[in-house]
Structure formats: C-alpha cells, structure tokens
Specification:
This protein has 465 residues and is α/β, with parallel strands linked by helices. It has eight helices and 23 strands. It has two domains: 3-238 and 320-361, Glycosidases (TIM Barrel), CATH 3.20.20; 383-460, Immunoglobulin-like (Sandwich). The chain has helices at residues 21-35, 76-88, 148-153, 167-183, 198-206, 240-251, 299-308, 368-380, and strands at residues 13-16, 39-42, 92-97, 101-104, 108-109, 115-117, 120-121, 159-161, 187-190, 213-216, 236-238, 273-275, 313-318, 331-332, 338-339, 385-390, 395-400, 404-409, 415-420, 426-429, 438-441, 446-451, 455-460. The longest helix has 17 residues, at 167-183. The chain is globular, with a radius of gyration of 23 Å. Bound molecules: ligand QV4.
Amino acid sequence: GDPTRLGSESPVIVHLFEWRWDDIATECETHLGPAGIDAVQVSPPNEHIALDGVDGAWWARYQPVSYALTSRSGDRAAFQQMIERCEAAGVGIVVDAVINHMAGIGEGVGIAGTPYTPFHYGDLYTRDEDFNHCGRHEDDQIRDYQDRHEVQHCHLLGLADLATGTESVRERIADYLQGLLEMGVAGFRIDAAKHMPAEDIGAILERLEGNPYVFQEVIDPGNEPIEAGEYLTNAAVTEFGYSHHLATAIQSGDLASLETLGQEKGWLKSDSALVFVDNHDKQRGHVGGGVLMHRDDHYRLALTFMLAWPYGTPKLMSSFTFDDGNQGPPSVAEEGWRTLPVHGEDGLGCLDQGEVDTRGWVCEHRWPLVTAMVDFRQAMGDAPVAHWQQAGASRIAFARGGRGFVALNLSDETWQAELVTGLPAGEYCNLLDDCVTRVSVDDDGWAEAEVARDSAVVLNAERPV
Ligand code: QV4
C-alpha cells in the first residue's frame, strides 16, 4: 500500500470513470502527465455483462463474465497501448479489480461473447465449488451487515460470490492480475474488499510478482464487525469517513472542525488511507449520499482542502453528467451503447464549468483550480501542518511547514485577515487566481490577506511574484 510506488512523494490519482482506453492514452499525454497527476484509476477492463439488457448502465462493468480484456472502454490492444502511452507520459494505470464475484446470478452472454449460466462462466469458473453458498435467507444474499460470515460468504447484491478461500479460485484471480502487471499496470483497486476475508486477498496478492500500489475498497462505518484495519496487512484501504467528515464540515459551515481531520480515533494512518471528496458510487447515492460532488456548491473548496491537507492518498473523481443514478456514460444506444469519445473528431470534449446540466464529460481533473492544487500538494511533500488559525467556524488558515500557506473562506463575505503564514518575507501569488491576488509577507511571517467568499488563497514559498 505504499503510495510512493506511484512515483512521487505525495501522489495524486484521478478516476477517469468510464473513459475509453484511447481517450485515456491521449489524456495522459495532453493533460495528466503535464499536470503531474501520477496515476489513473480505470474502469474494470475485463469482459462484463451485455449492455442492452441494462440500458447501458455504468454498473454493468461490476458484473464480470470473464477475464478477457474486452470491455465497453475498448479491447486488449487499446488497453496495452494506453498503458504504454501513459507510462511514457509518467502516468501509471490502476485497474479496478472486480474479484469478489462474477455477474448477477442468471444467464446471458458477455460483451465479448462468453456465455454464462448460474455459477458457470465460460471455461473460467465451471464448478459450483468455485462459489460460496452461504446458507442464509434461502437465497444466500447479504442482508445483515452485522454478520461477518454473511457479508463475506453470501452474494453481494445477487452477484455470484467467488470462493476466494479456495486455491483454484485464488489461482485464477492471481493469473488475471499477474497478466495485467505483465502488461505494465501500476496498481489495483480491490473492489468490494470487505466482502472477502482479508486473508483471502492477502493470499492472492502474495502470488503476484511485481510491486503494485494496491488499495482495498472497505466501507467501514464504524459499527460493523468487519473493520478497515483488518486489511492493512495487505495494502492501503479507503477511508470513507474522510468524505463524510469533509462534506459535513462544509455543509454546516464548520471548517474549524477540520483541524484534526485524519487523527480521529479508529482512522487509518495517512500512508494507508485512500481518500476522496466523492467517488462513483457516492456521487450518485448508490451507497447512501452524504458527500459533495461536481454539482454542489463548495465542491471546489472541498477539493482545495483535500489537496492542501496532508492526510491520505487523494483520488480525484472525473465524472460524466447524469439524470438518474443508473445512466451510463455519454453513448449511442443504437450502436450497442458505444461510448462517445472525449478526444478526436467526434469527441465531445469536456463540458464548460456551469454546463453540468448537459450530457457530457465533466472532467473535474482539468479545472484550473485542480491543476494548481495538484502542483501545490506535490511541492509541499511531507511538510506538516503548522500555524492553524481560525476566525469563527467558517474561516480557517494553516501553513505547510515553511513551504506553503492556505486560507479558506466559506463565509458569504470577503475575509480581510491578518495571518501568520510561516513563509519567508516576500510577495507571493495566489495560485488559484493566476496571481490576480498578491500577498505580502513581512519579516515575521505575517501577512494581510483578502480571501474572497467561497474561495481560498494558496501560496507556495517557491512561487513569489
Ligand atoms: C438487484 C436487486 C438485488 C437482487 C439482484 C439479483 O437490487 O436485491 O439480489 O438484483 O436479483 C446492480 C443493480 C442492483 C442489482 C445488481 C445485480 O444496481 O439493483 O441487484 O446489479 O443485478 C455497482 C453498483 C450496484 C450494482 C453493481 C453490479 O453500485 O448498484 O448492482 O455494481 O452491477 C456495498 C459494498 C461495496 C459496494 C457497494 C455498492 O460494501 O463494496 O455496496 N461498492 C463496490 C463498487 C460498486 C459496485 C460493487 C462494489 C459491486 O464501488 O460500484 O456496485 O462490484 O456498500
């Protein structure tokens, strides 16, 4: 779970949700590499259920039919090219590995033509013993999250639960992941990790040769028998408490409550935590809401805070717009739900800010604020938080060692503040407005700053005027 495996001291990951492989390759070259983004989380690359039966829903990709690399995002050759072009641009590929289960129990034919019937998927998993049959509730489905056995051995959402406790299943999963490593991927997100005993995941990862960055998706609300901490011996883990805490602080106007964010009892250590403002489930209320996303007021402030605050490995969400929570990416239904590209001649490009009611790609990762803050985060490295200051609950400021300084104003009025910056004397540019705002720091490190409403002033010691 060591995040520096992604190639920098404080790496930043972006989830290009449902993007096509050829688009990601171009994006690595034109935007991600130049912006210093270290890695892309891609949608599951393996064969999934057909799109027609589910009207092109995005979640089709969480229903594996085989480990063939054919998906809505492109074929194996496009996937390989993407890895190579991104690597050349300094960007790693993190694969969303759906290994807890196969498709929903039923029958059909996958997107690459592989047929499946209950508990039989092509020639990959052909025996009932390849699946768990937990013996609960007659239909073997997960209902009670207070029951460890049920959560880890019954079927999540009716998806055929793989018997990851068995050698033969572990071997098939490891072969899939090893093949990806040999193609050059940099890491994995382990989907639905909470639904597999930590030991099963450990046994699979142990078989791999290579040094991937791994994080496991474990939603630990703090009151269930399965805890995020159990998974730390394997790799990093998602810290869902982070998104909720941040959203609550911002929605209640209480930025001051962020002073100890990450030090809460029971939270993961910074190096082991994968954090985000929103993810693909949360932004559409698939696992409860309670987070901020691109449509919300103050989303930009939340991103500013996350990238300025030295806790966890941050993952940015890059979305497509939607009216209902099942809707897939921009696509042409009549052409087998072909995903419309971002780049190229018939490419949709990215929506302009404020256009979020139109169908299209939002590309939060391209917002100038995000680019500036990614640069800031990397310049700060491991510099600790210092000089915490607050004026009421909605205005806060803090320094990052002597390397940088941030002031955030969530109130409705401009904040005229006198603040300790910890920076050497000089005149600095606000990184968030192209140096329209300038801040003079005196010999004692104090500055008078004007922080606009719902906005921030961000200074980097290395970026004087
Ligand atoms: C329906 C009924 C079920 C019934 C089933 C079978 O709701 O009660 O048992 O039919 O008859 C889709 C549909 C869902 C459907 C299911 C099976 O939404 O209604 O069940 O398919 O056909 C994504 C989506 C899910 C989607 C799933 C598979 O979020 O809605 O289910 O893909 O397509 C917990 C876990 C956490 C998980 C989260 C969703 O602890 O690990 O639930 N999060 C990850 C991913 C998420 C993904 C999965 C796991 C599954 O982030 O995106 O689910 O791979 O909190």
